[in-house]
């Protein structure tokens, strides 16, 4: 009798285990095989196609190989950077048109570059879309702040922090920014006293934007904040290194040398921020409210006083988010604008004339009223943001079944918005889309500051023909390429 029962029990166990295995296998099959087929089918019926899905890896193999191929080739001397920076997008768009499907593993993304559809995603139908989940490494860097928050928590934080971006507050920041800039320029002048010097502007601009963000984020706690952001900058370097190696799932939990360093940094950052928050909280009681610009830290601490759901953790994460969002974006904009002005000296002359006209003598620091009068400079900055947008793409995820320009979008579909591609689209900007022409932003349609014959860059056809020799001769420095490529890596992992 005992024996029989044991046997039965063993048999039942076996059946149970087999069932579990079967369930697991079929779940995998549904997720990695059946569902992607169904989605491909759903879109193909609406006339949307794309490179075919491959089991588990989707199109990742092709994406990586297209990106590697593009970045291994010399970059011609031109602003036509889409084929290099978003090589996979450029390649498939030619085949499948402006709206097509790409598989980032088993995750489907619908690439959308029609401005009308993009407007729907961000404005008229925004309630159907939310941010997607960032790669864990990015997530750690950007923090649990505005950049990644969703729904109610996002709305709450956004309401608290919006005063930092009010015009009145930004105006108070003008002298703060001016101080950081003049300090930098003074150093350049000292450097150049000994003759010709080469200045790596991208490094200087990173220090500059870090400095300004530290002031906007920490205000009176600038010195303490600076030390914290130094740690965060090192954390960003470590993450950038991690991107360059092959990503094995779960790798970030293995105690490698780099990971141990990164964990320690994370702990130090948290500890210092908590200490700083404590210090500021003590001061709030006995110091009169500051007259200076409102800083992120002050606003968050103030809010935490009256709202129990703003915790110290939230404040720490919001600080990280600001740093991440503001530093590379701003320094990249400044760097590319400088490069563009160096490449197009005619515009340098126009910008310089305007600054001297508006601000007067060289020693006058621009006031808030001057800034709005710098029309030409504004056009140049806009053109720089168009050709070299610091954020080259973004993603939104359909929260529920949605409609987009008449297409039926199943819940969970991610919408890939290739900002860089929209900015270089000849259908939107005309045949000179890949040329630097700030005049396109002029209110005066006839604005033509110079004869642009000798400023012509290579046409797309000629470009594909540029040889290594020409490249080496015209561009001795490959740093620019590296920078573009690293931005592209960021997007891939977002
Ligand atoms: C040229 C400079 C900059 C560019 C081109 C830029 C671009 C962007 C873009 C495209 C987004 C939207 C991302 C998305 O939701 O998909 C964004 C969000 C954000 N940026 Fe910037 N940014 C710049 C500078 C800054 C600076 C200096 C700060 C802070 C000091 C900052 C803080 C933020 C924050 C907090 C968000 C999230 C907003 C929210 O979701 O409520 N950005 N930025
Ligand atoms: C946090 O508190 C505020 C007011 O105290 C409230 O409006 C908001 O809904 C709360 N947010 C969350 C996520 O609980
Ligand atoms: C630059 O772009 C911004 C944002 O689109 C716009 O508000 C501003 O008017 C533009 N400036 C010029 C000079 O076109
Ligand atoms: C590209 O190079 C090939 C071979 O040197 C030449 O025959 C062709 O005319 C060139 N095309 C352009 C657009 O310059």
Automatic annotation (TrEMBL):
UniProt-listed Pfam families: p450
Tree of life domain: Eukaryota
Main location group: membrane
Cofactor(s) needed by this chain: heme
**Annotated Gene Ontology MF terms?**
heme binding; iron ion binding; monooxygenase activity; oxidoreductase activity, acting on paired donors, with incorporation or reduction of molecular oxygen
Record's GO cellular component terms: membrane
Segments of skewed composition (Acidic residues):
451-466
Q: Does the keyword Membrane apply?
A: yes
Q: How is the protein disposed in the membrane? A: Single-pass membrane protein
Region feature Disordered, mapped onto this chain: 445-494
Keyword Disulfide bond recorded: no
Q: Where does the protein end up?
A: Membrane
Concerning its family, UniProt says: Belongs to the cytochrome P450 family.
State what protein this is by name: Cytochrome P450
Originating species = Acer saccharum (Sugar maple)
């Amino acid at each position: 009798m005992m024996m029989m029962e044991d046997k039965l029990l063993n048999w039942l166990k076996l059946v149970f285990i087999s069932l579990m295995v079967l369930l697991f296998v079929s779940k995998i099959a549904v997720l990695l095989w059946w569902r992607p087929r169904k989605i491909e089918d759903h879109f193909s019926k609406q006339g949307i196609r794309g490179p075919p899905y491959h089991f588990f890896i989707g199109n990742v193999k092709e994406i990586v190989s297209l990106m590697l191929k593009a970045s291994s080739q010399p970059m011609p001397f031109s602003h036509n950077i889409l084929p290099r920076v978003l090589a996979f997008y450029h390649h498939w768009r030619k085949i499948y048109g402006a709206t097509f499907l790409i598989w980032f593993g088993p995750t489907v993304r619908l690439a959308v570059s029609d401005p009308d559809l993009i407007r729907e995603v961000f404005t008229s139908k925004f309630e159907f879309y939310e941010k997607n989940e960032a790669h864990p490494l990015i997530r750690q860097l950007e923090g649990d702040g505005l950049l990644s928050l969703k729904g109610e928590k996002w709305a709450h934080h956004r309401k608290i922090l919006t005063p930092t971006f009010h015009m009145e507050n930004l105006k108070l920041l003008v002298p703060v920014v001016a101080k950081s800039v003049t300090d930098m320029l003074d150093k350049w002048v000292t450097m150049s006293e000994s003759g010709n010097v080469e200045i790596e502007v991208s490094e200087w601009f990173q220090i500059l934007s870090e400095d300004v963000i530290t002031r906007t984020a920490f205000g009176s706690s600038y010195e303490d904040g600076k030390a914290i952001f130094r740690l965060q900058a090192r954390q960003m370097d470590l993450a950038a290194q991690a991107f360059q190696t092959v990503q094995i799932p779960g790798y970030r939990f293995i105690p490698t040398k780099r990971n141990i360093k990164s964990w320690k940094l994370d702990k130090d950052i948290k500890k210092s921020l908590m200490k700083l928050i404590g210090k500021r909280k003590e001061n709030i009681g006995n110091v009169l409210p500051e007259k200076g610009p409102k800083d992120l830290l002050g606003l968050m601490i103030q809010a935490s006083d009256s709202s129990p759901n703003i915790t110290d953790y939230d404040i720490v994460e919001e600080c990280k988010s600001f740093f991440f969002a503001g530093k590379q974006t701003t320094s990249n904009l400044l760097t590319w604008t400088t490069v563009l002005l160096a490449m197009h000296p005619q515009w340098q002359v126009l910008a310089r004339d305007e600054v001297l006209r508006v601000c007067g003598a060289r020693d006058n620091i621009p006031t808030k009223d001057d800034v709005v009068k710098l029309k030409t400079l504004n056009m140049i900055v806009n053109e720089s943001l168009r050709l070299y947008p610091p954020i080259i793409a973004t993603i939104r995820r359909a929260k529920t079944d949605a409609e987009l320009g008449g297409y039926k979008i199943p819940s969970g579909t991610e919408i890939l918005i290739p900002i860089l591609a929209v900015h270089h689209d000849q259908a939107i900007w005309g045949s000179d889309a890949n040329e630097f022409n700030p005049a396109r932003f002029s209110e005066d349609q006839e604005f033509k500051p110079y004869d642009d014959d000798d400023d012509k860059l290579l046409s797309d056809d000629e470009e594909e023909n540029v040889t290594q020799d020409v490249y080496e001769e015209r561009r001795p420095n490959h740093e620019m390429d590296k920078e573009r490529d690293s931005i592209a890596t960021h997007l891939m992992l977002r």
